[in-house]
Amino acid sequence: QVQLVESGGGLVQPGGSLRLSCAASGIVLSSIGVAWYRQAPGKQRELVGTITRDAYTKYADSVEGRFTISRDSDKNIMHLTINDLKPDDTAVYYCTAGTYHSTEPRYWGQGTQVTVSL
Question: Count of H helices and E strands in the chain?
């Protein structure tokens, strides 16, 4: 059974940083495409960024330069590092796992809340 468990969310002031983590079981993150999504209150879910099994990353324009996706293959964990947080980054953040050939989600985590406020 595949499980994805996010952690690391919280309340942060504008300009701050966070590192979200996604621990996987039942699947090897380094062998598939994975992604992060977010959903802000009252808004549609948004793709934040992806990383292929070949470690090619791609980000939404709204987060380019501030967000970084990485993987720790030894621990089977994926991270989303967020710098220079803005109030518009407030959302529930989800990690997803795709397949060998695609970052399209087959599995979702339960999400972790990030709130950016003074």
Answer: 0, 11
What does the pLDDT read at residue 91? 98
Tokens at residue 102, please?
């695609």
d(CA 111, CA 36): 10
Residues 6 or more apart whose CB falls under 8 angstroms from that of 47 comprise 35, 36, 37, 60
Region 45-49 average pLDDT: 97
- Reported as a pLDDT band with limits 50, 70 and 90, residue 3 is very high
Q: What's the mean pLDDT when you consider all of the chain?
A: 96
What does the alpha-carbon distance between residue 34 and residue 50 come to, in Å, rounded to a whole number? 6
For residue 54, give the DSSP letter.
T
Q: Which residue has the tokens 């701050």?
A: 16
- Token pair of 29, please? 């993150």
pLDDT category at 73 given cuts 50, 70, 90 is very high
Looking at residue 15, its amino acid is G
For β-strands 77-82 and 107-108, DSSP reports them as: unpaired
CA angle 117, 89, 25 (to 5 degrees): 115
